[in-house]
Design brief:
It is built from eleven helices and ten strands. The protein has about 350 residues and is α/β, with parallel strands linked by helices. It has a five-stranded mixed sheet with strand order 3-2-1-4-5, sandwiched between helices. Strands 8-7-6-9-10 form a five-stranded mixed sheet, with helices on both faces. α3 links the parallel β4 and β5. The longest helix is centred in the C-terminal third of the chain and has 27 residues. It binds 5'-O-[(R)-(carboxyoxy)(hydroxy)phosphoryl]adenosine (KG4) and zinc ion. The site of zinc ion has 5 residues, from α4.
């Protein structure tokens, strides 16, 4: 086989993702979700996550190779998430990947999880290429990135407090909608009126930055007031209105960055980009401005091994050296090599 055959491993948080990408195409992409394990705690418990990765990674690796119909000896490179993420969880996938690459005589490369999200649109959008503005919004990170060239990323802005997914998760927990919160709010919002309640849109004076902690306070205060006055809480309207507040800010700031850079392509990645209202609003705005929108389908927006394999393959092709001596980097930041 002459094409690169890359095994991608993602274990930065609560999904164990193993995938095989051959020549940039997904051959298999298997996910071991820990959602049910963490749901009873109302959030991801780091130690529990690391343990669950240990228990499932080997069988998922076998499954990914079997589904891809790839023999382990044909793997040319193993790519594993190096950071950012939970240290104990990262160590599981990184060490497993290193051991596997060593045993197979393959290359090994560490990947920035956010670079994986950033490149994921390539699987389904042929013309997705720099220069592009990319909105990355997940449970731990929210940022707007300008990709001026392959592998060259500039942070234009981001959250100054909670990540967008974190805001969805915290508000959903407060409203009793369970974990993870984003999908629950997304579903319930379709039954509510997004204009029912006007929650605040923060940081209007900073074109590319977000803040979501004030939104949480405002929703809590609004619901408390309803309770105090003996009124019912129209939960679907609350969900739709808070979702609209988050979406408004993400869309506005993304297109501020488009205006600033003159980019004609907008990409997106991270679990929050699975949000149906956000996708619709980004599409509307992109069409209005005649800008190309490249969003992965929902299952490639959330954490997966395929995006890690792709980012690893592209880095190796750019001549980035493998990192046998490197370690995980829980605080890794895109565009800040060290
Ligand atoms: O990228 P991801 O799978 O994991 C991290 O790297 O954090 O993102 C998970 C986040 C969670 O906060 C989850 O609530 C949010 O993405 N999310 C959504 C939706 N699906 C997942 N948020 C809003 N709407 C959704 N449909
Ligand atoms: Zn992620």
């Amino acid at each position: 086989m002459t094409e690169p055959v890359v095994l991608g491993i993602e274990t930065s948080c609560d999904e164990t993702g193993l995938a095989v990408v051959v020549g940039g195409q997904i051959r298999s992409n298997v996910i071991g979700s820990q959602v049910e394990i963490h749901a009873r705690f109302g959030g991801v418990v780091p130690e529990v996550a690391a343990r669950a990765h240990v228990e499932s990674i080997k069988s998922l690796a076998h499954r990914a190779l079997a589904e891809a119909e790839v023999h382990p000896n044909d793997v040319t490179a193993v790519a594993a998430t190096q950071g950012p993420g939970l240290a104990g969880a990262l160590v599981v996938g990184f060490s497993f990947g290193k051991a596997m690459a060593w045993a197979l005589g393959a290359d090994f490369i560490g990947v920035d999880h956010m670079e994986g999200h950033l490149l994921a649109p390539m699987f389904q959008h042929e013309g997705y290429e720099p220069p592009a503005v990319v909105l990355l919004a997940s449970g731990g990170h929210s940022q707007i990135v300008h990709m001026s060239d392959w592998g060259t990323y500039r942070m234009m802005g981001g959250t100054i407090d909670d990540a967008a997914g974190e805001a969805f998760d915290k508000l959903a927990r407060y409203l009793g909608l369970g974990f993870p919160g984003g999908p629950a709010v997304d579903r319930l919002s379709s039954k509510g009126d997004p204009k029912a309640i006007r929650f605040p849109r923060a940081l209007s004076d900073r074109p590319f930055d977000f803040s979501f902690s004030g939104l949480k306070t405002s929703v809590v205060n609004w619901v408390d007031k309803q309770h105090a006055s003996g009124s019912d809480v129209p939960i679907a309207d609350v969900a739709a209105s808070l979702q609209e507040a988050i979406v408004d800010v993400l869309v506005e700031k993304t297109f501020n960055a488009v205006d600033e850079t003159g980019s004609t392509t907008v990409g997106g990645g991270g679990g929050v980009l699975a949000n149906r209202r956000l996708r619709a609003r980004l599409a509307e705005e992109a069409e209005k401005r005649n800008v190309k929108l490249a969003l992965p389908t929902a299952e490639l927006c959330t954490d997966n091994g395929a995006m890690i394999a792709l980012a690893g393959q592209l880095a190796l092709q750019r001549g980035v050296a493998g990192i046998w001596t490197g370690d995980v980097d829980p605080g890794m930041r895109l565009g800040h090599p060290h």
